[in-house]
Design brief:
The structure holds 2 protein chains of 2 kinds. Chain A is mostly helical. Chain A has helices at residues 11-34, 43-57, 62-81, 84-89, 91-96, 98-122, 127-133, 140-149, 154-179, 184-206, 208-235. Classes of the chains: A mainly alpha, B mainly alpha.
Chain lengths: 236, 120
């Protein structure tokens, strides 16, 4: 699945789903604001859940939804490029912390893959699932290819990356409050490594500085992990 | 006009990265490449054009909206997910909480303090 397949004319079905998605998103933005920015009210999670429920109940095919949904994925591409703007704005701050950034990113990434693989080994999961879990902190367009290369299931890899992202965003604010980590740079960096694209979206919403750290760590970590994993898996 | 110029610039950069990606067969995905290109262009120009600034502000604030179709597409994964759902969920929960905290912790320990501490 390419994130950027060219859209075909959506027809009434596609437009209906496009309108529904936008309307529900607006409703949940309002709800979240009403409930003091509660992290439980992630519009992404709830809107997707409602639409999935509608598709299942109405026995409607995913491709019908995608006639409209693909348009949003095209904008996701443009939105991803825009991450360059806050990164440019915050370059002096990023440069000043470059060493800490790199060390924390690498250690964080190793801890993510390490815990996932150790647990998969203990639980004696299928080798295919094992290889799939290794790609969980790689941003989804990359995870797809890498998973294929190291013998995982690409479709499942995308799913794991997305569930990971949602869970990270759900738990993040509470976790940082609990552990007393208030540095927005540290939070952004962590979202980028542990929750990739969805984490970056959330960080971006909170502040441009947090978002730029998230975007940078997501991109850099994704590329580095993609280069390292196939080598490790070919050795074992 | 400025807004349109901003959107065109983003689309053009994305197009360029997709092209580089397909012709150079790199591991770097097009969106990551595009971010790098945009930063280089902004560095050369020395400032963010007004239109691009306004477009990117909207796109970034609502990035979650554009992820919805990707999440909805998970409906096609139900079969694969169902077989291993409990071990997978357990692993995802632990291996998300730990690095989320650990990455932030290491950075907060090592990084020089931010000049304006509240940053927010």
């Amino acid at each position: 699945m390419s994130l950027l397949s060219p859209p075909v004319a959506p027809g009434w079905e596609g437009l209906f789903w496009l309108a529904t998605t936008l309307a529900l998103y607006v409703v949940f933005i309002g709800l979240r604001r009403h409930f003091n920015d509660s992290s439980l009210l992630q519009p992404l999670l709830w809107v997707s859940a409602l639409i999935i429920a509608a598709l299942l109940i109405g026995d409607i095919s995913l491709s019908s939804y995608q006639l409209g949904g693909d348009w949003l994925l095209v904008i996701l591409g443009l939105s991803t490029v825009s991450i360059g703007v806050p990164i440019y704005d915050n370059l002096p701050i990023i440069r000043q912390a470059a060493g800490a950034f790199f060390v924390a990113m690498v250690l964080g990434s190793v801890s993510a893959i390490g815990t996932a693989l150790a647990m998969a080994a203990v639980l004696q999961l299928d080798p295919m699932i094992f290889a799939t879990l290794a790609t969980k902190s790689i941003t989804s367009p990359l995870a797809f290819g890498v998973s294929n290369e190291i013998g995982g299931l690409p479709a499942l890899a995308m799913g794991v990356v997305i569930i990971t992202g949602n869970f990270g965003v759900l738990i993040g604010p509470r976790l940082f409050a609990l552990t007393g980590i208030s540095d927005v740079r540290a939070q952004g960096l962590a979202y980028g490594v542990a929750a990739t694209g969805i984490g970056t979206a959330e960080a971006m919403r909170r502040s441009a500085l947090m978002g730029s750290f998230a975007g940078l760590s997501m991109g850099l970590n994704g590329v580095l992990t993609s280069l390292v994993l196939p080598v490790i898996f070919s050795l074992s | 006009m400025q807004l349109l110029a901003g959107i065109s610039l983003l689309a053009a950069i994305l197009a360029l990265s997709e092209w580089v990606k397909t012709s150079a067969a790199w591991v770097v995905p097009a969106p990551v490449l595009a971010i790098v290109f945009l930063v280089i262009i902004l560095l050369m120009r020395g400032a963010v054009p007004t239109g691009l600034r306004r477009v990117s502000a909207v796109l970034l604030r609502h990035m979650a909206l554009f992820f919805i179709p990707a999440l909805v597409a998970m409906v096609s994964l139900f079969d694969v997910l169902q077989e291993n759902i409990w071990p997978l969920l357990l692993i995802i929960i632990v291996s998300t909480i730990l690095p989320l905290w650990f990455t932030a912790f290491v950075f907060a320990r090592l990084a020089p303090r931010l000049d304006d501490e509240d940053g927010q």
